Amino acid sequence: MSKYRLDYLDELEAEAIYILREVAGQFEKPALLFSGGKDSITLVHLALKAFRPGKFPFPLVHIDTGHNFEETITYRDEMVARIGEKLIIGHVQDTIDEGKVIEQKGKNASRNPLQTVTLLDTIAKHKFDACIGGARRDEEKARAKERIFSVRDEFGQWDPKRQRPELWDIYNGRIHKGENVRVFPISNWTELDVWNYIRRENIPLPTIYFAHQRDCITRNGQLMAASPFLNMDADDIVEKKNVRFRTVGDMTCTAAVESYAFEIDDIINEIASSKISERGARMDDKVSEAAMEDRKKGGYF
Amino acid sequence: MDILKFITAGSVDDGKSTLIGRLLYDSEAILLDQLEALHASNRKNDDGSIDLAILTDGLKAEREQGITIDVAYKYFETDKRKFIIADAPGHIQYTRNMVTGASNAALAIILIDARKGVVEQTTRHSFLVSLLQIPQVVVAVNKMDMVDYSEDVFKQIIADFKKLAAKVNLDNVTYIPVSALKGDNIVYPSSKMSWYLGDSLLQHLENVEITIDDSSAHARLPVQWVVRPQTDALHDYRGYAGRVSSGSFKVNDKVTVLPSGFSSTISKIEVYDKQPEEALAGMSVTVHLQDNIDISRGDIIVNSAGQPQLSNVIEADLCWMDTRPLDTSLTYLVQHNTKTIRCKIQEIIYKVNINTLEKDFDEEFKLNDIGRIVIKTAEPLAFDPYQVNKANGGAIIIDSRTNVTVGALMLRQSVE
Lengths: 301, 416
Fold this sequence. Notes:
The complex is a heterodimer of chains A (301) and B (416). With 301 residues, chain A is of the alpha/beta class. Chain A is 31% helix and 16% strand. Chain A has helices spanning 8-26, 38-51, 70-83, 92-97, 115-126, 191-201, 264-273, 291-297; strands at 30-33, 60-64, 87-91, 130-132, 149-152, 180-183, 212-219, 222-225, 239-245, 255-258. In chain A, the strands form 2 sheets. A 6-stranded mixed beta sheet of chain A has the order 3-2-1-4-6-5, sandwiched between helices. In chain A, strands 7-8-10-9 form a 4-stranded antiparallel β-barrel. Chain B is α+β, with helices and mostly antiparallel strands. Chain B folds into 3 domains: 2-207, Rossmann fold, CATH 3.40.50.300; 216-303, Translation factors (Elongation Factor Tu (Ef-tu), domain 3); 309-414, Elongation Factor Tu (Ef-tu), domain 3. Chain B contains 7 helices and 22 strands. Chain B has helices at residues 16-26, 32-40, 60-65, 95-102, 120-131, 151-168, 201-207, and strands at 2-9, 72-77, 81-87, 107-113, 136-142, 173-177, 220-222, 225-227, 239-243, 248-250, 254-258, 263-270, 278-280, 284-289, 300-303, 309-320, 332-336, 339-352, 359-360, 370-383, 394-398, 405-414. The relative contact order of chain B is 0.11. The interface between A and B is large, with 60 and 73 residues.
């Protein structure tokens, strides 16, 4: 017996690599859902560690709302070129054009809820049986209860009352035809863990994570990036602000925080002393106390 | 800094949710927007203070019923350590959830209501903690405020618990008198119990020593994936990827691959772009061997000098986790490490009444039942007794009709 134990970042990394390799070993057609956010960027880095010098046993899949931060798309394309892996893009615009969803109207219109349909269509089209995602249990209380291997029915629905027991580090990925599994290798990481890992590993990030000047408007007490995708009216005042983004989603639902954190060390200090949770800056979670739980039951990531 | 995963065993009535809420609240792990939601809630304690138990509620049904149904994971850290709490329900109908939460825990907090002392559910929780081999145990005697912070009450509970601990083979027990509601001895030492000289709960969690098994005798590497780039430059590259589940491997160690029994020598250990000399328990590595032998997912690489048992008829403890009872005529699947094969439960030796610890010879093995069985597998499993090496002694049973995990196995020994 020894007192030596792995440092927490080494332990979290080893666990995530183990989970990624379980996906490779247990599924026929897995995919890694890539949003361009720091969590999925971290997943890609972990996949390099899990499978190099071999190729990834899965493609990257981006569900593109069309309302992206330009910086995210630039980053995505550069990264894919750098690592030489396959990227599949599912367009929310296609889902709208096919008449499967209807664009929201009004001031708070967002394509964020529409992307669930595109995701399910993309899964069905490519017959993916496992989708790896970067969700973490510390983000939100429904996520705190979700398994690392989370079985979804053919409608993509999560049933919190019928979750499989998940013992030790044995993951049961057996499913029926049409079902799929969402896999969350960084379930046990916190926001700060992700940042500390990105710093330690020198992982490049899209520039919007760092403080920059941007035209913003204030909505429901939150700073939103002014963009053609945001339905604005006469009340909205556009102001130049020094901001950065803590999460990267659709431009219409991702709020900025005022910040002068230009370097990763500044960001880590800022988060360590922050009193607001990461998802506090997501309009989509503000709808009700059970907002996330309801969306997950409906097939959301 | 390392990570301590712990489980809390107790029910809402014992103040379990309040205890976790107090740990998070007093260690300032709660953020402003979560705090706002807490203050905005209609649920308050009788004296009007905020109900910290809300912090652990997850699902709608749990909020409605005020109970914990499923295991929830909570994260917090101090300057000394990072913590992951598996908040598992304590009622008997959720035994399987507690077993699930306990399977990964390095420490268990068993909650006892100071007014009630050691009761039936204490026996049950202690039995499960022992069955799952959680290395460290804290008995938190809660609601001390309701027994006038009496040292005598605390001492009596210790004496009673020691008898129970001896019966279920629990070692490494630490006793702490607390009031989660008032915050005594949770994060801050209590001013009301000057007779108690030990650490507060958080101090104990920060300082308790957790060891790993790094002996070469228990070196186990279940193979998850074979890395074969098959490019011109790396034509002969063949790496066996997996996470060392226990023990340690070094370059030049003689190893045996099971179940085939082929032997070779470790020529290289890789972790992405680094080549460490040693692979320790918990590390995800890629190992290269000197000889070209047939190895695939499901095989396990072990140190040749310390081999596990290899058998297809094994005595084991079983916790049943499905609403359909165990059917001994049915073929199930067993998943042990990276191997999934067919199996049957050949014999039920006995069941245990986990409230009284008495043996029960009832034939039916239902949801939440625990007992000893004999399993027969389609191929031999390379396992260690769970009591000796937890990492290579746990397995799950899967119902191939539903694909659901229906049982947890703690393997004991080969049956000749």
